[in-house]
Amino acid sequence: MKLGYLAKLSEEECTTAAQLGYDCLEVGSTWDLRHLADAGYRKSEAEKARAILARSGLSVSAVAVYFAVPREVEDRFRAYELYIRFCQDLGVGCIAAMAQSDPAKPLDENLDLWESVFSRVAPLAEEAGVKIAFENWPGLNSAFPPIGSINVAFSPMVWEKMFKRVDSPSLGLEFDPSHLVWQGIDWAAQVVRWAARIHHVHAKDTEILKDQLKANGFFSRGWWRYRLPGYGEIDWPRFTSLLKEVGYDGAIAVEHEDPVFSGDRRVEGLRKAHDFLRPLV
């Protein structure tokens, strides 16, 4: 497995990643969709990106588009079509995405919208040899029930519905155990259950602040926070061992959202994450 982290592609970021000992980057998309329709632009930008990466000896594990795609169905389909073509030019086999949803609509309606886009995207991805990995982030829009999400792919219950509707090997998960921890979901069981659908992995931990949880309850704010691997609840030797056991051989990308190592301490945090995870991968 390769070890990387999520960041925007730049000469400076690649230099930092290489100096810290990382193998790759999950690259957040900064490419303008209006220009990606131009094949010449795509090839030129891909060449520039490959040159930057080559100077640092890095690769790209995935292109992260998340919310860099429109909400309208036809526009969203076209965006994924262009990102798939760009990944081909770049030589990258994975797109990290969000299964966007409308928190005001019920689950089945959001799944209808998702299906209307990805039933058309999946054949293009299969043909291109590009996998689409949906981040399992619960994008909650409220601290109070009923709670809606701006990302429909937030739990195993929904994954089952999604992949039953569009059963394509090109569609899977960007598996992030940190989001399962605070939902009370057994992340280890889900690694085993969804092994064939894990196309990319995020390394992020969750710290549970139990005193605040007991005082204010599940629907309050501030009883959990994201941390770098090793500073939370996840058993990382077990997690990485399970990934190897189920045959995952892709990248593990640190998603650095740790408030303790933010700002001027960001690189320190990335170094700590690398040194903690490197012996495990």
Description of the structure:
The structure is a single chain. Strand 1 (2-8), helix 1 and strand 2 form a beta-alpha-beta unit. The chain starts with a strand and ends with a helix. Helix 1 (11-20) packs parallel to helix 3 (39-56), helix 3 crosses helix 4 and helix 4 packs parallel to helix 5 (107-128). The strands form two sheets. The chain has an eight-stranded parallel beta barrel, surrounded by five helices. The protein has a two-stranded antiparallel sheet with strand order 8-9. It has 281 residues and is of the alpha/beta class. The protein has one domain (2-280): Alpha-Beta Barrel (TIM Barrel), CATH 3.20.20.150. The longest helix is centred in the middle third of the chain and has 22 residues, at 107-128. The protein contains eleven helices and ten strands. The mean pLDDT is 95.
Proportion of beta-strand residues:
15-25%
Taken from the alpha-carbon principal axes, the silhouette is globular
Number of domains: 1
The oligomeric state of the chains shown is single chain
Mean pLDDT: 95
**Order of strands across the biggest sheet?**
1-2-3-4-5-6-7-10
Number of strands: 10
For the biggest sheet, the summary is: 8 strands, parallel, barrel
Structural class: alpha/beta
Tell me the helix content.
40-55%
How far apart, in Å, are the first and last alpha carbons?
Answer: 6 Å
Q: Could you name the CATH homologous superfamily?
A: Divalent-metal-dependent TIM barrel enzymes
Topology as H/E string? EHEHHEHEHEHEHHEEHEHEH
